[in-house]
Specification:
The chain is built from 6 helices and no strands. With about 170 residues, the chain is an all-alpha fold. The longest helix is centred in the N-terminal third of the chain and has 75 residues. The relative contact order is 0.03.
């Protein structure tokens, strides 16, 4: 009976009863905290994986955008160079100048009523001169009249013109 009295005295002691109940509650809370910590660590790992995946995707997208931007810049520079080359090609500048002159003529027709008849006469004269130049008459005369230099030029002009008309 001694053993049972000893055990019953311990169980009836209020301090030991409170201590046992407190230890039991502490163990339950510790186990709950441990499970909660495991759950939070699992969530943390998942979030880190998601963050890592997102950063990889963003990095790949940024690299793609950088490459695309460099390609667009290269294309822009190439197009700019092509425009400069095309503007420098023979005929382009002249075509632009002709367009400017055409626009100026249209404006003059609208603003000056007496301009049109004088212009038409001048255009016909210019066309005749161009036709003669295309046939070769004017360039031939110009070559004959511009040979030599200084005093020889004035003395050779009539002679060469006379020779060219004889043939």
């Amino acid at each position: 009976m001694e053993n049972s009295s000893w055990l019953s005295s311990i169980l009836t002691n209020p301090f030991l009863r409170g201590l046992t109940i407190g230890l039991f509650i502490a163990i339950i809370l510790w186990i709950r905290g441990w499970f909660k910590a495991r759950e939070l660590n699992g969530n943390l790992k998942k979030l880190r994986e998601h963050l890592h995946t997102k950063l990889e995707i963003d990095s790949a997208e940024n690299e793609r955008r950088k490459e695309e931007m460099s390609k667009v810049k290269q294309e822009r520079d190439n197009l700019r160079n092509m425009v400069q080359v095309l503007n420098q090609k023979p005929g382009r500048q002249e075509l632009r100048q002709v367009q400017v002159y055409q626009k100026a003529i249209e404006i003059m027709f609208e603003k000056s009523p007496g301009f049109a008849p004088a212009w038409q006469i001048t255009v016909k004269e210019a066309e005749e001169e161009i036709k003669r130049a295309e046939r070769g008459i004017i360039p031939f005369f110009k070559r004959m009249t511009t040979t030599g230099s200084g005093t020889e030029k004035s003395s050779k002009k009539p002679l060469e013109l006379e020779q060219s008309t004889d043939h």
